[in-house]
Amino acid sequence: MRSYLAFATWSLLAGFGIPLVGVLNGGIARSVGNPFSATAVTFAVAMLIAAAAAIALYGLPSCAQLRGIPVTGYGAGLVMGFYALSATLIIPRFGAASFIAFILVAQLLGATAIDQFGLFGVARRPVDAMRIAGLLVIVVGIAIMELGNLRKVWS
Hints:
6 helices, 83% helix
């Protein structure tokens, strides 16, 4: 139970940071003149922090370890880059809440498929009726939230 609460708290903090990526990156984009450079600056800072922490805690990985990385593992960098650039471009025009609402639906559907089929080496966690009900409640809630935004767009 203790680790569950720790992971839940950490996840909430990480989740709170997700809309900030686009908002803060938008500020960088205004300063440097474009969203691509802003995303590059953000990733440079992230790389420096991650590298410093990794080296301090674990040391440098060996060449054999680096060669052992599956090619698909590099997809994470592509996905993160796409997300950060998307947030930078879309949040100022669409709003943080709407962007995150659609991101949340996609994350939940993607995560459910990963769990259901044990994709990418993740332990298989079959979907049950409770999880489907929870997903439906969230999707309906987001749809209701976005209907208000659509009314403003159509007015």
